């Protein structure tokens, strides 16, 4: 192969890469538009609907989770719109500032939402197994949410420092994207920083969420019998009329309820827990490909590979996993609506 043929082949490969990058950008653009147009109004609608359930123990957590998802998706939506020649920020903010700001909002919102799920499920665990202690502790939801928000902001302060606007090709005319600048701390430090970030933002909170949900689902008895009510039906009282000593010694203090009420409450609780577990699992599966691919890229640098064929494959894979990632947002208002039906049945 002559040098001229080699140059032509390289140019053709570069053109093919730019073509793939442009095609995937268009696909992601329309996907973000469709998901945002459907989900953002649905989240606003659920904000309004859930206002009448303020007395619920989970109200503040649910609203904060929806607010985090709203900010996260709205940031992605505005960032995509601004990249498509709409120029919302033209002449106001430089591209690098928009890149840093959007990355900070996305990372902070993701961190907050994932840990808010953990806090809400942990609160439910305490209410199920330590009801009197949870009641005496009072409703600490607002304080917990405030601490989570502050911790989320502090944990993402590195984002505006390391993330910047990088060029796809030799210059910005070929396109730009937001990514970490390895020249600041070095590639090795950046690798472990991104690994720790993914672990703390995604993997750890979802593992804790699933563990907490499984514990509530499969642990039938309270963790402690001290200061806990024993619920007993009227049928049991009739059955043990001649066993006064057993009733008073082994089942004290008592809370007498109808047997059907006990079965209904247990069934409703298990259904709600299974629904939460299903949502946590679905969200985990929808987030997992995107986080995994980004983490792998930090160690193997597929995005910046000298082999353009590898970069083309990465661009396609990145678009696929990001579309899967976007599918999690419509599940949030749907899940909130299912919770609304649970609240309605509880109040009836």
UniProtKB/TrEMBL annotation:
GO terms for cellular component: membrane. Gene3D superfamilies: Rhodopsin 7-helix transmembrane proteins. It is found in: Membrane. GO terms for molecular function: G protein-coupled receptor activity. Residues 40-336 form the G-protein coupled receptors family 1 profile domain. It holds the Pfam family 7tm_1. The keyword Ribonucleoprotein does not apply. Keywords: Membrane, Transmembrane, Transmembrane helix. InterPro entries: GPCR_Rhodpsn, GPCR_Rhodpsn_7TM, Neuropeptide-GPCR. The keyword rRNA-binding does not apply. The chain crosses the membrane at residues 27-49, 61-81, 101-122, 143-163, 192-211, 276-296, 319-339. This is G-protein coupled receptors family 1 profile domain-containing protein. It comes from Caenorhabditis remanei (Caenorhabditis vulgaris).
């Amino acid at each position: 192969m002559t040098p001229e043929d080699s140059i032509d082949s390289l140019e053709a490969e570069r053109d093919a890469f730019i073509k793939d990058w442009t095609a995937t950008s268009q696909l992601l653009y329309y996907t973000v538009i469709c998901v945002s147009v459907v989900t953002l109004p649905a989240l606003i609608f659920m904000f309004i609907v859930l206002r009448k359930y303020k007395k619920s123990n989970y109200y503040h957590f649910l609203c904060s989770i929806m607010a985090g998802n709203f900010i996260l998706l709205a940031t992605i939506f505005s960032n995509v719109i601004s990249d498509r020649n709409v120029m919302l920020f033209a002449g106001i903010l430089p591209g690098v500032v928009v890149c840093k700001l959007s990355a900070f909002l996305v990372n902070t919102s993701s961190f907050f939402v994932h840990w808010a799920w953990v806090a809400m499920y942990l609160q439910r665990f305490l209410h199920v197994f330590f009801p009197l202690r949870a009641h005496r502790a009072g409703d600490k939801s607002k304080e917990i949410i405030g601490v989570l928000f502050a911790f989320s902001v502090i944990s993402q302060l590195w984002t505006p420092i390391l993330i910047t606007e990088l060029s796809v090709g030799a210059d910005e005319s070929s396109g730009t994207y937001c990514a970490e600048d390895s020249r600041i701390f070095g590639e090795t430090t950046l690798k472990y920083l991104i690994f720790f970030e993914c672990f703390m933002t995604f993997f750890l909170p979802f593992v804790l969420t699933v563990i907490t949900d499984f514990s509530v689902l499969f642990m039938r008895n309270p963790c402690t019998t001290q200061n806990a009510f024993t619920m007993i039906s009227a049928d049991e009282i009739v059955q043990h009329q001649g066993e006064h000593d057993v009733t008073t010694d082994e089942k004290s203090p008592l809370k007498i309820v109808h047997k059907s009420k006990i079965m209904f409450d247990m069934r409703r609780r298990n259904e709600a827990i299974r629904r939460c577990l299903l949502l946590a699992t679905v969200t985990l599966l929808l987030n997992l490909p995107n986080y995994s691919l980004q983490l792998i890229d930090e160690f193997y640098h597929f995005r910046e590979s000298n082999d353009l064929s590898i970069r083309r494959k990465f661009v396609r894979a990145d678009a696929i996993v990001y579309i899967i990632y976007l599918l999690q947002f419509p599940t949030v208002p749907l899940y909130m609506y299912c919770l609304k039906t649970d609240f309605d049945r509880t109040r009836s």
